[in-house]
Each structure stands twice: as C-alpha cells, then as structure tokens.
Specification:
This protein is α/β, with parallel strands linked by helices. It is built from 6 helices and 13 strands. The radius of gyration is 16 Å and the shape is globular.
Length: 224
C-alpha cells in the first residue's frame, strides 16, 4: 500500500469521536472498513472524476471526509496510487492492474482489518450517513448488501464481507470483471433505496458522476 508515495502497511490507529447512532444503536465510526474505489479511467468525463471540484474540495476528498466519520478504517483503492499520495488516508494498489471493480473490492478486502467493508465508487459524492447506517443493520446477515432502486442494483454501493473473497478471486481469475458475476455466488441482499429516500432530497445518494452533464447536474442541484 502507498502512503506519501511509499509502500507500507495501513495505519490502524486513527481514532474518531464516538457518535451515538440512535437508529442502529451502534456508535460511529462503525467497525467497518470503508473502501473508495478510484480505478476508473474516466473516459466519458475526459478527466479524472476523483479530482473534480465539489463543495470546496475535490470529490474524493469530500468522500474521504465523510467516510472517516462513518468508518473506523478507510482506504482508497487505485490502479495508480501515486496520483493519490497526498490524500489523508492510505492507498491500496489493485493486486492486478486495470481489472475493474472486482479487483478493487478484492484488493481492499484482503487488507481490511474488519470483517466487513463498505464500498463506494469515487464518483458517488452523495453517499450519506442515513443510507449507510440503515444498510449496515443487515451486514451480519449476508455476505453482501447492495443498494437497489427502480429495478436496478448498484453493486458498487454496499457492504461486502470477507466471505466474498473466494467468489471475487474465482470471478477475477476466470477473466470476468462484472461485480454482478460475484453476487450470483454469494448470499446477497438488495436494500431498497425507497426505505431511506425523501422527496426533499435534491438528488439520490446513489447518483454517480460519469459525464460532464452529470457533473453539471450535481453542481446545479446540490450547491443551493
């Protein structure tokens, strides 16, 4: 893993204030490892999505700030860790280059100190505390808990346990790259976003920034 441009073991001594989560009766940060996946090539955006300005910082810095409040341990997972060497959390290098999110999730699970990780892509800046804490209540019942909405599944937004490691390895070394291939081989639950959504939300928590139009929409709807 990289920190400050050097390979190293992750720091495990970060501490955060215990904040009572009244909904789940767990304290924050949760005993979970947060993984921010930064391996995409941003072809449709035309520039790295992680470093797009958002809320006075970059999208990835915004996510790091949110994740360090929610989770006891936080990593970035990247194909090119040097690009993130100035971040405030450790960076895990993909065990195989350019093999997609399956490789990213596996790489993070292999170094996580906790049994469960929470995964989000680096282009999802609207992941919020309410969603995480509600989804987390199912994490011990299944190998995977991912978000679902409008008949779709968001495999890059959810909890994965170390029980998934073999399925991730099998999928990766079979030459497949879709996380959906992993879900068919594990105990998985889809959390319906309607359980936490509100008509007052300017945008859904699963919104991801893929194109310049998406980015423009994000800024126009959430900067008010």
């Amino acid at each position: 893993m990289f920190k400050g441009g050097h390979l190293m073991e992750p720091s495990l001594d970060r501490q955060h204030p215990d904040i009572l989560d009244s909904a789940s009766r767990e304290t924050l940060p949760l005993p979970v490892t947060g993984l921010i996946l930064c391996g995409g090539k941003s072809k449709r955006m035309g520039r790295p999505k992680a470093f797009l300005p958002y809320g006075g910082r970059t999208i990835v810095e915004h996510l790091i700030n949110r994740f360090t409040q929610l989770f006891d341990e936080v990593f970035l997972v990247a194909n090119e860790p040097d690009a993130f060497s100035q971040m405030t959390v450790d960076v895990v290098k993909d065990i195989l280059p350019n093999r997609g999110p399956v490789c990213g999730i596996l790489s993070g699970l292999l170094v996580a100190k906790h049994e469960h990780v929470f995964v989000a892509a680096c282009d999802m800046p609207l992941v919020d505390r309410k969603l995480v804490r509600e989804m987390s209540r199912r994490r011990s019942e299944y190998d995977v808990v991912v978000l679902g909405h409008d008949g779709q599944v968001e495999p890059l937004l959810g909890f994965y346990s170390k029980s998934c490691i073999k399925s991730l390895e099998d999928t990766l070394f079979a030459g497949k790259s879709a996380v959906h291939d992993v879900l068919s081989g594990v105990s998985a639950s889809v959390f319906d976003y309607k359980q936490v959504s509100s008509t007052s939300d300017p945008m859904p928590a699963y919104f991801n920034v893929n194109t310049p139009l998406d980015y423009s929409e994000l800024l126009s709807k959430t900067s008010k």
